[in-house]
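Quick one:
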Amino acid sequence: MIKVSENVYWDGIRDWDLRLFHGHELSTHRGSTYNSYVIKDEKTVLVDTVWFPHKEAYLEKLQEDVGIENIDFIVINHNEPDHGGALDAIIGMRPEIPIYCTEQGEKIIRAHFHKDWNFKTVKTGDSINIGKNNLIFVEMKMIHWPDSMMTYLDHDKVLLSNDAFGQHYCTKSLFNDEVDQAEIYQEAIKYYANILTPFSAMIARKIDEVVAMDLDIRIIAPSHGVIWRENPLQIIETYAKWASGYSEDFAVIIYDTMYGATLRMAGAIEEGLASKGVKAKLYNCAVSDMSDLITEIFKANAIAIGSCTVNNSPLTSIVAITHEILAHKTAGKPYLTFGSFGWSGEAATYIDAELGKTKLKKAAEPVKLKYTPTKEDFKQCFEAGVKLAEAIKNDIQ
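Output:
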């Protein structure tokens, strides 16, 4: 076990080998951790467990470090299988042990395990005294599951935040002041962009609610990645910024190409942006990591997406990234679409129609060029880049 505060200990699992998560939906280049916590006060409390593939190693560790027979009750902040995956094994050994969770948490645990266990439901503001500490519960509904909540210890001043403020990041230390600061930022923003972006409006409101509770937070201990013990409020402040129309000073151009024409169109759009002082990043969607692309889209202040037409549609990678933009409820940024074609040109129009379902802002009509474009043709792409740059500047003003 690793000591987090006077009464809180980390007793989780480091997963150095993890490279894909959420059913291969999310890339995890730096692995992850499953942070289970033990509170040793007058009562011994277990907060969250680990993902079920690590169940046996975790139970052996927990038995050696704590003794499952010594646990007075369990708090499940969120029962997604990477946090509640070992719950059934523990209850199998201690069927009478109380499980504290939200009302939705009880429903979800029952739906996962189909057992009638000793549930104790809580809501925001409820508390339990365990000795020096009161455990104060804060519901985090739909951030990012219906059952999510946080648990605050008022003596140790530790916020056990579950998926909020975490990162998929396995490294030499469990604490933010002992790791590479660039890496932790990269993983924290990737985590937010890929998992939490659809809930940004709720996150902004919840941050206001937590601030209004006036909790003295000295440590934030999430359920993945490092623990924030040096200036822990920095991650709350950063979430508030990310949840409120965040963007950085660059446009992102994403394309897929068959014989190079669409790639050249992307280059001409970049030149149009550059002519107005806007920097851009270009990504070939077919060879880029989808989770990293979602992160770049989240950070960008404008988006251009293009594909050639095949079988009356964009290439598969572009269909996929367009779907992800819709699923992540990407909003507020100007966009344009483009693509080359032979005898039909539906790709750019398809992408434009899909992005039109979002709250993104259309900067120009789709640009469609036939077969091998001429220099004159590419001027249309340049001008589209200029229009996108002007849309960015209008947004800023």
